Amino acid sequence: MVSAINVPAGRLVSNAVVDGAPSASEVEHGGALLLNSATDDALGYASDPRVREAAFAAIRRQSLETPASGRLVAELQERLAAWLSVEACALLPHPGVLFDAVRPTHVDRRLVVREGYAGIPLADADELSAGDEPRRLWIEAAHPLEGDLAPLHRYVERASSPRTELFVLDPLGLGVLGATGGGVLDHFQVDRPDVVRLLFLGTALTTPTWVVAGPRELVDGLARLGPLTWPTASIAGATKALELCAQEPHRRVRLLDLAERLQGALAELGADTGPAVTQVVPLWLGEETLAQRWLTTLAEAGIAARAWLEPGRARLLLTPSATLSDAQLDRVIAGLAQCAKKCGLPELPQRSSAPAVARPGTFAVARACGPWWTQAPVVERPSASPRPPSPTAELRTRLGEAVEGLTWRVANTRIPNIKDVVDPALIRAVLDRVRRR
User: Fold this and answer.
1) In this structure, are residues 307 and 13 in contact, taking their beta carbons and an 8 Å threshold?
2) Which of 59, 164, 306, 385 sits at 20 to 30 Å (Cα–Cα) from 399?
3) How far apart are alpha carbons 30 and 39 in whole angstroms?
4) Which is it for the CA torsion 206, 282, 92, 360, positive or negative?
5) What pTM, to 2 d.p., does this model score?
6) What b/e readout covers 119-148, taking b as 16+ CB neighbours within 10 angstroms?
7) pLDDT per residue over 12-63, tens digit each?
8) What 8-state DSSP symbol labels residue 278?
């Protein structure tokens, strides 16, 4: 899952149907082995033998059909709460569950553009004036289609009122960003135990599930919104991946190294990678037909890739895995260079700034880039051609003026009976003419 939200204007497409995944950096397609440049498994734990064995062991204990026990789910939630330093955690199948339960009064600009939830969009944190904070502030902290981060620390500083409920959506950061892998809040070193976080487990912990983390009173109420049962293998695998993620911080370092190197290689090719500072490295292509040609050329070069297709805003979405070797990354870069030479790149007035990633201690938010990345597309509507005046409308206007003038005369000359001024037959004739028109 690349996007945490449903974007009606576009769609995510791939150039390969995955038949198998022997590792996070390779996929099987039609009997061939392709390099995977667009993985959802950022740290490579989904195909890790230790995680797979933990999942198989849980299945042997409870069988494949039996859902995960309450004890197994509770253990994962308790470990997540300890890792994130919050009071409680609860698993949810999708962020839409929380969206429907907790409607924000204000939301981050990027979320309004894509989802259209009711709320007042904020273009900048400075719009939150002191003493006038909203009751609920919902922020999409990481942007999956651009790879940048919202200036979360500024929103937190502004929304300091005790009556403000702060909700943070983080689809990219868990296990990847911050000194301990706690996500975007960890990256910005925000210490607010009252902040409610919604994080995607699939980025690092192998399972396409979400977790809501925050104060126990609120989380316990939201826990009832999730399903009563969870797949045993999924929960057991995520628990083991969580354990490994805490023990192996070098995978986070490796992932950001690969993303930064990929940004630099694409910059040398003349590509525009937008404001990205996370493991998501987008490549602006603009037209959907050009994006389709890039996907076809990459498939011919033995590289599995994905693209976001949206009218006038198409882009390639490159998401490497921490398990990708230097030699494999060289092959991916060579394939991208072949695409740039064969298919071409769009002419743009400016490119992204120098490569940079959100390493711990940098407080990186985004790189300088063109406005086409973050602004909503302007839809030009054809101006309506002036319609010729309707004869009926003109006649109605003249009739109204005549009646108004007649009424004024009657009122001012104090004639007791209007029939003494105008023949009723004449009025009926005019009205019949209007009806026929």
Assistant:
1) yes
2) 385
3) 18
4) positive
5) 0.79
6) beebeebeebeeeebbebbbbbbbbbbbbb
7) 999 988 888 888 889 898 888 999 999 989 999 998 999 999 999 988 887 6
8) S
